[in-house]
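Fill in residues.
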């Protein structure tokens, strides 16, 4: 056995140990509280108290005590009769490194550090955190935190979190994985209020060792988990999480809330960086991986609850219907559905005819259905709508009137006649609404309060269905064309040469080293022409006054060359003479190498106005034809591509080929950090790169 084989074997054993120890940490059968105390003001006291109903082995560790709160106490972890699965550290930060070393040596599975005082304070705290990370990586010990409120595993009756009320959170099928311990508890309480329960709720804190990917990977095979709710503040290993979620979301619906909407791009040279801030890249990556991305903790909890009760079949454009007895709220719901891009189709003639036999004259029955005051045939109305071939999900909204409509009695007969998803929304006095919601929850029928929430719940269901449809496509694996470094730095001409090798066209041009070459090129090319400065030390030629359009005679050429010669640059005489492109719509297509997510591609409207319009769509490379088509359809100004007010009807397939090419260039050339085509001039017959910027590592 050679050294590499031995190394791989050792690494594999360590990986297996780390996975097993993560399970021991989050589903413990035995727990030790290090720093246990009888003083109610101490964290070690609260830890023992919160765990008092833990059904497994619970012990205290304190060198000055023999018993704490009725639990046996030992001086050290090494003194325990047998290794525990979890050790909770309720001790100051400066003592945690030594205690972690002792835990690893004693065969502890994992530790959870309550206290702060690590990287979040800088200085010595960073050093302490680095030491903890080293211990974990070398020994297989797992660490949750530090600086977190911990976790709750209701199925194990393990309350490793010390906030009042968490011990009463019901067990269920939803897992919460939150960067913040506070958000973890917020989501847990919201899910509980919605009548659902938790399989696991974890606050990662500083995430020195256990991160989002670790927990999600474990949850993928957890029989107690039917849906996953994620809260992310930052993703240090984004591509790893992306690849993991692409697999996990096929099996279990996953919803995410991402902090940091106000973030802007850290790439300062091109427009591309400002169009594609890290928050947008994170949203795009998670969506591409099949995650439903929402914008609030309420929406996250509600989407997770609804999806835990059942998913729609994978479909590119699911049809949604609404049945309601109140026209006003119904209009709000339909507005919300259409604003979210959901398909609200008219029913078939057969469904309309059937509804007309069930409802009074003059009611609207084409979708939505306005039933008026619900009658005894309300279940038949819902069933008729659900059985329409165009409909995949039925929304039912009714203000609470217990004497008129029992939601469970009204919906169960409809469910018996169809396999379609039915969501219920209502509002009323709490004492009337809560019994109905609880009854529906026990029967597995998703229910929310309020018209807007009903629309958002439907949007989550459909978003998940769309995502599953996208993920069902064969996965694109890009075969790298080149591992060679590029001949950087790039000027516009050399950038366009590279683009040409990937099938991206540009106007005929000539790179000229002096005036004589410029005049020769002017006469050889079709006029009028564009005259541009060419210099690797000038990124934005227009802003520098180095671009002259519609140059059609020698006098205007001379004036352009004279002006360019005055611009300070390392190559003052070098210019590019290029034929003018035909009229069209201007786009920007660019790509950046994100330090976490890897190669990302953006397309946006606007050309020189790209940043002002901020109308863009993002994907991780590699990108296929359908990805590119979806990106164009996501643009708010997509009508401009389809012959809007005299503009040419643009060749979307040609734009798609450019988008794909940009992604492939980034994949093929690891030293290229950023690429931008701005503008890409698109007409009915062409897509031409009028300008190109490539930045590469030197």
């Amino acid at each position: 056995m050679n050294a590499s084989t031995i190394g791989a074997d050792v690494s594999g054993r360590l990986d297996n140990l780390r996975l097993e120890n993560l399970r021991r940490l989050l589903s413990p059968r035995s727990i030790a509280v290090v720093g246990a105390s009888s003083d109610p003001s101490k964290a070690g006291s609260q830890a023992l108290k919160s765990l008092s109903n833990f059904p497994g082995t619970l012990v205290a560790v304190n060198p000055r005590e023999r018993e704490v709160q009725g639990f046996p106490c030992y001086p050290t972890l090494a003194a325990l009769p047998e290794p525990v699965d979890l050790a909770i550290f309720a001790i100051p930060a400066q003592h945690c490194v030594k205690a972690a070393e002792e835990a690893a040596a004693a065969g502890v599975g994992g530790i959870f550090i309550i206290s702060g005082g690590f990287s979040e304070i800088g200085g010595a705290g960073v050093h302490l955190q680095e030491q903890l990370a080293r211990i974990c990586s070398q020994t297989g010990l797992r660490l949750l935190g530090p600086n977190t409120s911990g976790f709750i595993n209701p199925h194990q009756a393990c309350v490793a979190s010390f906030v009042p009320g968490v011990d009463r959170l019901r067990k269920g099928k939803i897992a919460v994985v939150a960067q913040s311990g506070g958000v973890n508890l917020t989501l847990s309480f919201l899910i509980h209020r919605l009548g659902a329960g938790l399989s696991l709720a974890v606050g990662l804190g500083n995430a020195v060792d256990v991160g989002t990917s670790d927990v999600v990977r474990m949850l993928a095979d957890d029989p107690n988990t039917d849906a996953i709710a994620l809260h992310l503040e930052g993703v240090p290993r984004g591509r790893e999480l992306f690849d993991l979620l692409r697999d996990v979301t096929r099996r279990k619906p996953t919803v995410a809330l991402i902090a940091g909407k106000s973030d802007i791009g850290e790439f300062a040279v091109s427009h591309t960086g400002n169009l594609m801030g890290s928050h947008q890249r994170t949203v795009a990556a998670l969506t591409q991986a099949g995650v439903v991305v929402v914008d609030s903790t309420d929406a996250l909890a509600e989407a997770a609850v609804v999806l835990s009760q059942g998913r729609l079949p994978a479909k590119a454009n699911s049809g949604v219907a609404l049945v309601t007895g109140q026209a006003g709220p119904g209009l709000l719901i339909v507005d919300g559905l259409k604003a979210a891009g959901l398909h609200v189709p008219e029913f078939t003639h057969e469904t309309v005819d059937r509804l007309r036999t069930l409802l009074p004259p003059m009611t609207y029955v084409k979708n939505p259905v306005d039933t008026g005051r619900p009658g005894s045939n309300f279940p038949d109305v819902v069933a008729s709508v659900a059985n329409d071939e165009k409909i995949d999900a039925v929304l039912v909204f009714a203000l609470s009137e217990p004497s008129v409509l029992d939601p469970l009695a009204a919906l169960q007969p409809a469910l018996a006649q169809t396999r379609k998803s039915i969501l219920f929304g209502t509002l009323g006095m709490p004492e009337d609404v809560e019994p109905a919601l609880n009854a529906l929850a026990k029967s597995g029928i998703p229910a929310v309060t309020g018209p807007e929430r009903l629309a958002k719940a439907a949007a989550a269901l459909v978003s998940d269905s769309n995502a599953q449809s996208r993920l069902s496509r064969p996965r694109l694996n890009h075969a790298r064309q080149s591992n060679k470094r590029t001949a950087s730095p790039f000027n516009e001409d050399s950038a366009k040469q590279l683009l040409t090798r990937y099938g991206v066209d540009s106007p005929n041009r000539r790179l000229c080293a002096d005036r004589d070459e410029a005049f020769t090129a002017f006469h050889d090319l079709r006029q009028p022409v564009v005259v541009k400065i060419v210099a690797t030390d000038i990124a934005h030629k227009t802003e520098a006054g180095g671009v002259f359009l519609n140059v059609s005679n020698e006098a205007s050429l001379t004036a352009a060359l004279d002006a360019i010669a005055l611009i300070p640059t390392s190559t003052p005489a070098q210019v590019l003479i290029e034929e003018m492109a035909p009229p069209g719509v201007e786009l920007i297509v660019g790509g950046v190498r994100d330090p976490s997510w890897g190669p990302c591609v953006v397309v946006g409207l606007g050309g020189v106005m790209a940043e002002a319009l901020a109308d863009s769509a993002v994907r991780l490379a590699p990108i296929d034809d359908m990805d590119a088509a979806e990106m164009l359809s996501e643009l708010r100004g997509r009508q401009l591509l389809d012959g809007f007010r005299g503009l040419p009807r643009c060749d979307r397939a040609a734009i798609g080929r450019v988008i794909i090419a940009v992604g492939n260039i980034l994949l093929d050339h690891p030293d290229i950090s950023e690429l931008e085509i701005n503008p890409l001039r698109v007409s009915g017959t062409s897509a031409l790169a009028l300008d190109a910027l490539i930045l590469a590592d030197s």
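The chain has five domains: 1-147, 150-308, 311-471, 508-579, 585-696.
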